[in-house]
Design goal:
Blueprint (H helix, E strand, L loop, with lengths): L1 H14 L1 H11 L5 H33 L3 H21 L2 H4 L4 H9 L5 H10 L2 H13 L3 H23 L1 H44 L1
């Protein structure tokens, strides 16, 4: 249970589906309720598939490029910290490369938005991927890995519910309400990133001193 709560809380904070809500509303404002529900479901499903693949294959990709797990954790921690600062300063969309005009023009050339830009880069970004690769390296028991996959699934389910209710969330919370909650989440995300970096640096220093 402790592992599930930790993974869910960390992953939900890093993914931050609330920060995706305004983008989702903007991209689907001309869609029907059925179309919005379908886009929400596809975005959450795509996110789950991407994160699950990253969790199970990430270490093989690292080995192929000769990247150590501690280097990945430090790099991932820096990305997570920068995402947290972006949430605190209200520049989360820009941090994700979500220029409104470019996204609008790109969407007009495609039939759907569930894979890009929603699943990638808004939800399944490098911070979440690096977090999961680190977890896979730390937990070798099959039961633990099943718990982590369950946490990913529940996080994606919560993301689906938030995107499906995005127009109601914007209506009742408003831009200021979403901003305030995002800033709180941003603080938590920064703390997660710093913990990620500091623990990796301590490990590297410990190995170097041996």
């Amino acid at each position: 249970m402790d592992l599930f709560i930790y993974v869910f809380a960390a992953l939900f904070s890093v993914i931050n589906p609330l920060g995706t809500v305004p983008v989702f509303v903007g991209l689907t404002k001309e869609d029907t309720n059925a179309e919005r529900s379908r886009t929400s479901l596809l975005a959450a499903t795509n996110t789950f598939v991407i994160l699950a693949i990253a969790f199970f294959t990430g270490k093989y990709i690292l080995n192929f490029f000769g990247i150590s797990i501690e280097s990945l954790r430090i790099a991932g921690g820096l990305i997570i910290v920068s995402s947290g600062f972006a949430l605190l300063t209200g520049s989360f969309n820009k941090h994700k490369g979500m220029d409104r005009e470019k996204v609008k023009n790109d969407v007009q050339e495609r039939d759907g938005v569930s894979l890009t830009p929603l699943a990638i880069p808004m939800l399944a970004g490098p911070g979440a991927i690096s977090l999961l690769i680190g977890l896979q390296e730390d937990h070798h028991l099959i039961f633990d890995r099943l718990i982590i996959v369950l946490a990913i699934a529940i996080t994606c389910t919560a993301t689906f519910l938030m995107l499906k209710s995005a127009h109601f969330i914007v209506k009742y919370l408003g831009a200021s309400g979403i901003n305030a909650i995002s800033r709180i989440i941003g603080f938590i995300v920064i703390a997660i990133g710093i913990e990620y970096i500091s623990s990796s640096i301590m490990t590297v220093l410990g190995v170097a001193l041996l």
